[in-house]
Amino acid sequence: MNIVLWICGITLSIAGALAMVRLAKGPSILERVIATDVLLLIVSAALCVDMTINKHTDNLVFVLLACLVGFVGSVTVSRFVTDRRNA
Amino acid sequence: MLDTVIDIVAGTFMIVGCLMSLAAGIGMLRFPDLLSRLHAATKPQVLGLFLLLAALGLELRSWVVLPVLALAWLLQLLTAPVSAHMVGRAGYRTRHLKRETLIADELAAVVEAAEQREEAEHGQNGNRDRADFID
Questions:
Q1: How far is CA A56 from CA A52, A59, B47, B61, B72, in A?
Q2: What is the value of ipTM here, to two decimals?
Q3: How many CB atoms are closer than 10 A to CB B122?
Q4: Could you report the per-residue pLDDT of A46-60, keeping only the tens digit for each?
Q5: How many Cβ atoms are within 10 Å of B105's Cβ, its own excluded?
Q6: Contact residues for A50 (Cβ-Cβ < 8 A; gap 6+)
Q7: Which residues of B are less than 8 Å from A48 in CB distance?
Q8: Which of A31, B7, B57, B123 has the fewest Cβ atoms within 10 angstroms?
Q9: Distance in Å, alpha carbon of A69 to nearest chain B alpha carbon
């Protein structure tokens, strides 16, 4: 299980770094919204891995809430994106 | 014996679930425009989270947490397509797409028809000079 923890940690770290690069570069706000969504998913994946390795359910509420927060966030932002350059 | 088998299955699920997140991260950087990045971004939301929650359920070995895990995955399954659709719609309307990477633009005919109908009803409005822009 220790090896699995290392593999998952390294994988998620690389994924988070890549998502953050896109978050910094992303030409438009919509790209940043997707990158934020992916980053939130990576954080909740890390919480899932932690709960699985240590066998507790403390962070399950956050994983539930992360789905809803990500949904509301991306829908709200894309609702208010207008037809302007780099809006 | 059974415990080891369950541990191995859960470990495999976790690694594959994390690889889904990695695939999304690589896709965010490698794919050319908004719509294809959207395709990569929804990958860890559905399959990756399912695998991680399944691993969690296998390791906890209790029936009590199963409804919560199912609810978390079901919420993600319901909300991921809706938010992806909203972002894609906003991207199409604000023209954040590369037309040359599209094989077929099925929405173009509908938009064209709607604009022609609007012109027939209200006459020439004049603001037709909107060009695609690609960042």
A1: 7, 8, 22, 11, 16
A2: 0.86
A3: 8
A4: 999 999 999 888 889
A5: 12
A6: A59
A7: 14, 17, 49, 52-53, 55-56
A8: B123
A9: 10
